[in-house]
Amino acid sequence: MKNLTTLLVLMIPICLYSQEKVILSHTIKMYNEIEISLELENKPNDRFHLIKIDTLTATYNKGQILHNNIFENSFRRANVVARYELEENKKYHKIDIKGTIIYFKPSENKKSYFNLGKLKGLEKNINLIDKSVVKANPTVYFSIVDSANIQKTFPNFRYKTNNGEDYKSIDFKSYDLMYAYRSTKNQDLIIAVNEDLDHGYNNLTLTDKRTNMKYKLIKLKKDMAATEKDEIKIELMIENENSIERIPFDFKNADLK
Q: Which domain of life does this protein belong to (predicted)?
């Protein structure tokens, strides 16, 4: 998702428009953007109740379509947000918003939730996803990896986090967990670490463009002991048609404040 460049936000009361299960929690007009926030009514905000935007169209002034849509097409526990860049010298007062939300409820019975257990019991550098899932979709992948695997994939890799520092090699010892994963457009893969979807800090993500495999290096805790690392719990939520519900929404004349 692009970083917001807008600094000015008008202070407004948030109005809720509800239709069926989908709630339009706010439509905020900023200096050069419109932000739209959507959520589901009475949905628990946990890792077993996730939503993402499937389709979204916003129109203004009798059907003119807003373009330059910016949203991260990934599952979230609470609300999902989309932003539109505004064209200069055009007036925007009310918009119509139409689309579909995907509601994902992972479960063991529907082969969409897998508790892999603790890190100490997991073999490294192999696909840990259930064979029945891989048979149906060979692309989907998750593996705990070691430094040798990453170095083989990214030989002589060096990086820097800002312009003021020199390039450096990866300090593998500074990370508590390293894994590789891959999903597809129609089958998302969500990884929970110690029951947390937004896990870690000072993380490093690398992408192998040949295979579209992503490698994520995670820092969970300062000076994490080896015994603590062994106890890290890994869960996978893998999207499938049996575990999702597509919920349409259609909001007319939403005010832009």
A: Bacteria
Please write the tens of the pLDDT for every residue from 50-62: 999 999 999 988 7
Report in angstroms the alpha-carbon separations of 186 from 21, 94, 191, 203, 246.
23, 33, 16, 26, 13
Query: Which tens digit of pLDDT belongs to each residue from 212-224?
Result: 999 999 999 999 9
Which residues, 6 or more positions from 3, have their beta carbon under 8 angstroms from its beta carbon?
none
Question: How far is Cα of residue 102 from the mean position of the Cα atoms in its chain?
Answer: 13
Go through 162-198 and write b for each residue having 16 or more CB atoms within 10 A of its CB, e for each that does not: eeeeeeeebeeeebbbbbbbbbeeebbbbbbbeeebe
Residue 141: closest CA among 152, 126, 154, 155: 126
How far apart are alpha carbons 242 and 110 in whole angstroms?
6
Distance CA 224, CA 199 (A): 14
> Would strands 213-219 and 177-182 be described as parallel, antiparallel, or unpaired?
antiparallel
Cα 13-17-20 angle, rounded to 5 deg: 155
Residue 51's nearest CA partner among 106, 112, 133, 97 is 106
